[in-house]
Design brief:
single chain, alpha+beta, endopeptidase fold (from Nostoc punctiforme), 2 domains, six-stranded antiparallel beta sheet, 8 strands, elongated
Amino acid sequence: MAQPTAATAAPLPALQTPPDSGGSSALAKYRDLAAQAEKANEDLLKAQDDLKAKQKDLDKANGDVDTAHSQSDAAAADEAKYKVDVDKFAGASFLSGVQMNKLSALLAGSSTQEFLDRSAALDQIAAEKDAALQKLAGAVQQAKDAENLASDAAERATTARDGAKKLTDDITAKKKKLNDQIDQLKKTEPSLSALDRSLRGDTGGEVPSNIHAPGPAADAALQAALSKLGSPYEWGATGPSQFDCSGLMKWAYEKAGVSLPRSSSAQSTFGTPVQRSQLQPGDLVFYYSPVSHVGMYIGNGKMVHAPTTGDVVKISPLQSQYVGARRVA
């Protein structure tokens, strides 16, 4: 009788240094500068994401300020109204010249029934007085609560406004950095040979047959990304004919009905973390710390991604700068 074979774990997808494809030193320099420009691009996209989030915080805080002020005005109006009622009771120490208490009702009354009638009236007046006092106390507390809410909302609005201003300045600086990187790339472009230029258009070979993700949404995104092999890289582009790295992931998953954040940094916190030994086709794979590049795992230790400017969407091995993965569908 044959002995059962021991189960073996799936091989850990290997990480490789991105190949130079046999290009010149000029191409290597170009790719290094392009990688720096891509990082600047992703930093810019992250700052823009952060600014949108901060603007939402600011809009909510401003809305809370308006709501709190409305509540404060309403509470102040109630306080003034109930204070009038309480002041009436405070001034009414005597009723028709007779002190308002049951002893006075007994002494002033001419019969038991008159005493009972006066006592009932006094009970009613006392109840109304207590109710007026409670309403006044409640209105005073509501006014204080509304003032505290308004103060808190105003503080949050100021913080959000300051944060938005800082991020706006940060975006301006990051745009300048990206433009400087692009200028450096343009200066190195003429030094590339015809072979170098052709190597930039390499798509990494044919798509392996029968590549499928285990789930329908991930598979739809995977097929969408693979359908764009050879499409040029463009900073800030999200398709349908040009892409940056995170733009390709966002576009592909939108085709599957899944909305991803815009930047690779934000995408790296979306979905569920996945160990490298558990990678499945359709998982997003991330590079560098902090994250500034993303691709989509296709199986067999490879991914589809938009590498950098001057290059095209292609299939590449998982790279040595790998820092993690997320499953988003």
